[in-house]
Design brief:
Layout: E1 2-6, H1 11-21, E2 28-33, E3 45-46, H2 52-58, E4 64-67, H3 74-84, E5 87-90, H4 96-102, H5 105-111, E6 114-116, H6 125-134, E7 139-151, E8 158-159, H7 164-172, E9 176-179, E10 182-185, E11 191-196, E12 203-208, H8 212-221, E13 225-231, H9 234-244, E14 252-253, E15 259-271, E16 274-284, H10 294-312, E17 326-328, H11 330-333, H12 336-344, E18 349-356
Parallel strand pairs: 1-2, 1-4, 2-3, 4-5, 5-6, 6-17, 7-13, 8-14
Antiparallel strand pairs: 7-15, 9-10, 11-12, 12-13, 15-16, 16-18
Helix pairs in contact: 1-10, 2-3, 6-8, 10-12
Length: about 350
Amino acid sequence: MRVAVLGAAGLMGRAIVRELTESAEISGVTELDRERSRAAGADIAAVDAADRQQLTLALEGVDVLVNAAGYAVNLAAMDAALAARCSYVDLGGLYHVTADQLALHPDFEQAGLLAVVGCGVAPGLTGVLAAWAAEGLDVVHTIGCASAEHDADAPPGVSVPYALATLLDELSSAPIVLRDGAPVTLAPLAYGGPVAFPEPIGERSSVYTLHSDVLTLGASLGAADVDVRLALAPRVERTLRQIAQGAPAPPVAPPSAQTWSAQVAELTGERGGAPARVRATALTPPHEAWGLGGGIVATSGVAATTVRLMARGQLSDPAGYAPLTGVHPPERALAHSFLFPELEARGCQLTITTSEVTRT
């Protein structure tokens, strides 16, 4: 299988390229980026995703396009993938962009192509954690997902877990939660309460965030209530609040190679006729050999594993009789039995606990 990576000169794009070039299932990787100069010495084709014809031509002979360039170009990249007749993977599109992407399901299905949207840690790993937890319940009532990172060697100034523009869009937009099966809009940066993450992150304050998991998990797992929270380091949250209120953005540095990444999916529902709670967590430590922090390792791991599973034919319809086609979120396309061993090989620690809930 031949793969193209859009945004290949970026930090996440380079990590995905590394994963794929070391994968036996991948016969070749074409590196695409808007600015070749960002990766001196790399053989990267200068391609602007906004130029549909240019990107389509760059995808000639490619089987899968991985978009690591950011959610603003998701729809344009999917359009080019359709025109070039190749499948598609990206790292997420917040809520409204993901809705527009899912609307392309008939087009990809008719073309016999597959698009898996949101294959990072959140969305991506969070959705698969929720699907894993749902297996311990007969009926799912509520789903709460949360993410956090801890930079043990944070650089001076402000270090953010992913692209500042995406993070600001996510936090300055009104978050949407699912309540009684209907979307409800909250105020931007609405307080989400404390969340207990695995150590070394521990308990941290959170805010509700605009997120595609709210759009997809309710329908995927049958939950009436779904929300997603983000727990930023206090200094980062203060700075982002100031920027959201009009303050100039300070210099921003990427996270250090000593960053830990954690995700939580907590579900409530019924098991054997009794109320129950299932909590699934993922903790990815820094990867010393690669010199990369846990957030990058986990995100690139989910995206690259999705491509490898495509190559192996291990993404199939629910009945398992035909290759999966159309546009799907990760919890509908990625089986945890395939994804988790790949992440564990990179140091990710996965846990699940089930407890009874006392009726009140």
